Amino acid sequence: MDIQFLGTGAGQPSKARNVSSLALKLLDEINEVWLFDCGEGTQNRILETTIRPRKVSKIFITHLHGDHIFGLPGFLSSRAFQANEEQTDLDIYGPQGIKSFVLTSLRVSGSRLPYRIHFHEFDHNSLGKILETDKFTVYAEELDHTIFCVGYRVMQKDLEGTLDAEKLKAAGVPFGPLFGKIKNGQDVVLEDGTEIKAADYISAPRPGKIITILGDTRKTNVSVRLAVNADVLVHESTYGKGDEKIARNHGHSTNMQAAQVAAEAGVKRLLLNHISARFLSKDISQLKKDAASVFENVHVVKDLEEVEL
Ligand SMILES: [Zn+2]
């Protein structure tokens, strides 16, 4: 599982940073890629990665500001032009209005898609658990931005323990149906009377990962709630230390506020994105350094950077 950042800039594209989008690559887990936001030019960024658009099965939108959604019509149309590939349906989750934006763009441009889009819109009253599969649960909560905007908490379900086949063989268990029984947690007795306790041969279940991806927001307790004990928190950092007032006025956060959220939530690592083009490379190291005084395991991400979880 890893996250690849497709656009890490704020508001408008710059040479170094495109507007918002990131891919949560779940190829080993479910052979799917989930996109979070889809700013203009996201499909061009995808061309520079190994991500195949057909693998993108779900798109989660945090809010309807242009720098987070203007890439949708282009991406969705290009996704249709993959010759000889199976056309798989796609789910889009986002605030009320996303369906009308997508359908209007496709209709007025005469675009017809050979696959179906299932829209899952929500508003203030229909947040909480928005998706549950056998492997993942996704929650959305309302943040504090200038328009309705959400953050997502993606929770992988705990992974079953694995059977230690070598240890079983060493204990004299013949390979065959007994392995299956033990794997299912059943204790067995061998022909020679040896008792085999399943628990001794199955590793403990591993806790699933928690990934928190927030949209644009002022500092709010909702962010902390969404990020509690997360393996990774992706948080905007539109402004730097000392800019708290201007950040508040524009519905955004500083690096320091993001670090405070990470510390309060007890996350393992913090990734800062949504970086203003005003920041030059020396400012970026300062952004990280300042944030690290509050929360040590912090990193400012770049476009196309991949972070393994
Ligand atoms: Zn915004």
Commentary on this structure:
Zinc phosphodiesterase, which displays some tRNA 3'-processing endonuclease activity. Probably involved in tRNA maturation, by removing a 3'-trailer from precursor tRNA. Keywords: Endonuclease, Hydrolase, Metal-binding, Nuclease, tRNA processing, Zinc. Homodimer. The chain has helices at residues 27-30, 42-47, 66-69, 72-79, 98-108, 165-170, 177-183, 221-227, 244-249, 255-265, 281-292; strands at residues 2-7, 21-26, 32-36, 56-60, 90-95, 117-122, 128-132, 136-142, 150-156, 188-189, 195-196, 210-214, 232-236, 269-273, 298-300, 306-308. It is α/β, with parallel strands linked by helices and 309 residues long. It folds into two domains: 2-159 and 206-301, Ribonuclease Z/Hydroxyacylglutathione hydrolase-like (Metallo-beta-lactamase, Chain A, 4-Layer Sandwich); 165-200, no CATH class. The protein is globular and about 75 Å long. The mean pLDDT is 94. Zinc ion is lined by residues 63, 65, 145, 216.
